[in-house]
Amino acid sequence: MIEIGEYQEITQIKLSREINGAPLFWVSAYLVDDILIDTGCTHTARSLLDFLDGRKISRVINTHYHEDHIGANRLLQDRRNAQVFAHEWAIPHIMNPPKLPHYREQAWGRPDGSNPVAIPNIIETERFRFDVIETPGHCQGHIALVEPNRGWTFSGDLFIGRDLNVAGPETNVTEMLRSMKKLLSMDWKDFVLLTSLRTIRKDGRDALSKFVAGYEGLAFKAKSLAAKGMDTRSIVNQLFGQESVFDAITAGQYSSANLVNLLLEAEI
To answer: Does residue 120 register a pLDDT over 70?
Structure first.
């Protein structure tokens, strides 16, 4: 399933595996001049290539190595001779994608390996200049692309547009908040967050600031409850009411308990 949107000079390509006529999980790729930022998952790779037919694509930028962001890399390299760029840490994981848990393979598919090169600090197109910012937290090797003159911030999975009550095995709350604060510290007039879901936040600075403040508040509450002798499960119930449904879906890989433990360890 594919949906197309336009924002200023950006084309947003929303992609999802379709099951019984309904989207499963959306992920967005973004086309700006000759660069494509992320490529969706394996299940939508051919739909993406069909849409890009006749459009100039010379470079692909992967914000990180996860399967829902690199799914069409190989096809774009083989059929469009596109050069793929990624953070140096992510390169071996894109070349040889890891084995996936069943639920992730069902949702997004296991991508074919592709051959990226290390991304430089600046990416230039015919009309725009992007700063490449290291933004770990969701995972290592995560980057954001920023066009400071326009305030565009392609944030990958660093910020997905809503509060989270779960964390996964690669989440690092301390690094995530530091990365967000790094973006907030940058001085440009506009701040538009172009997330990897379907969300484009024109109020990006306010949205990111509220997220940071909310997580810092959660960390303070979690640590206060732990100091009173409450265990992780009790803190989960106190903060979120109950454990997330994703705990069962992902066999514990993504859970509120994981998030609470990370909040307790966070350096805030």
So the answer is: yes
Q: Which residue has the tokens 């390996």?
A: 113
pLDDT digits (tens, 9 = 90+) for 62-89: 999 999 999 999 999 999 999 999 999 9
Rounded CA-CA distance 197/179 in Å is 19
| CA–CA dist 247, 32 (Å, integer) | 37
Instruction: Count Cβ atoms below 10 Å from residue 62 Cβ, excluding itself.
Output: 28
Residues 6+ apart with CB under 8 A from 35: 57, 58, 59, 60, 61, 123, 125
Instruction: Determine the average pLDDT of the residues in 91-118.
Output: 94
This prediction has a pTM of: 0.94
In degrees, rounded to 5, the angle at the alpha carbon of residue 190 between the alpha carbons of residues 185 and 192 is 90
Q: What class does CATH assign to 2-205?
A: alpha beta
Q: Sign of torsion, CA 123 124 125 127?
A: positive
The answer for residues whose C-beta is within 8 angstroms of residue 191's C-beta and 6 or more apart is: 151, 153, 204, 205, 208
DSSP H or E segment with residue 131: strand 129-134
Contact status, residue 84 vs residue 116, Cβ threshold 8 Å:
yes
**Helices marked H in the chain — which ranges?**
45-52, 73-80, 91-95, 102-108, 173-184, 204-227, 232-240, 246-249, 256-265
Contact between residue 11 and residue 35 where contact means Cβ atoms under 8 Å apart: no
The domain limits of the chain are 2-205
**Tokens encoding 99:** 């084995």
Provide the token pair at 83: 């050069």
